[in-house]
Amino acid sequence: MSCRGPAKRLKSVLGYIDNGQASKLDMTYSPVLEQQVVNRSEREIRDIVESFRLIVGTIVTLASPLSARTLTLLLNLDIDEVTTRLRMLHSVLEVPVSLDAPVRLLHLSFRDYLVDSENKEKIKFWVDEKLAHRKLAKHCLRVMHNSLRENICSLSFPGTHRCGVDAQLLEGRIPPELQYACMYWVHHQTKVELEPSDMDDMHDFLETHFLHWLEALSLLGRMAESVGLIEELQSIVDVSHLPSAFWLHAKRHF
């Protein structure tokens, strides 16, 4: 594996991009991807491609970069699977030594290459962007279902402004994977064509955790964004089964 720094790796990639030819991107990225399946059986290749699409497909679809550890918790994976997959991709991803530092793309062209619909039949590692968003939305809902609750920080006075909440307590009760889920599940949900199961999942979540979600957003300092998120949700979810006062209360409270 190359030990070149991110700047040199990025310069190498950009050298191809400057030629303005898609084939050059293939020449750049195809060897990086194919090295993962050299001398592997067909079954091993299927497993590697599936793992790649979940882990790297998530990385290129995220609304904000996450660390390897947070990615593992968000996707409900084993940390060894994530680190093994990332270890093979240092030439296209900035993978910090620390498991708690964000993993980043070295250049957006890698993302474009993976999700380009024209590459669907050309490269085995092609990422279905809409499917990646759907999986992310479902994982976000799972994380929130499992973690959100009333008065999540056990405050003596519910409604306390976030500046009055101990930072370490906040990080412990609303860890990074839950923070991401709360802030971006709506983003991912709006990127897909909704199926009946998606609607069922959202209705179940809203009926159980709607106010808990808004409380978490408030504690995260995202109160100003909450009304916009609610309105965005109303554009994709049938909320007629919920009393209008339910939504109005949330808007006024937050």
From TrEMBL:
Report the residue ranges that make up the TANC1/2-like winged helix domain in this protein: 76-157
Q: Which InterPro entries match?
A: WH_TANC1/2
One Pfam family name is: WHD_TANC1
The name this protein carries in UniProt is TANC1/2-like winged helix domain-containing protein
Q: Which organism is it from?
A: Fusarium culmorum
Q: What is the lineage of its organism?
A: Eukaryota, Fungi, Dikarya, Ascomycota, Pezizomycotina
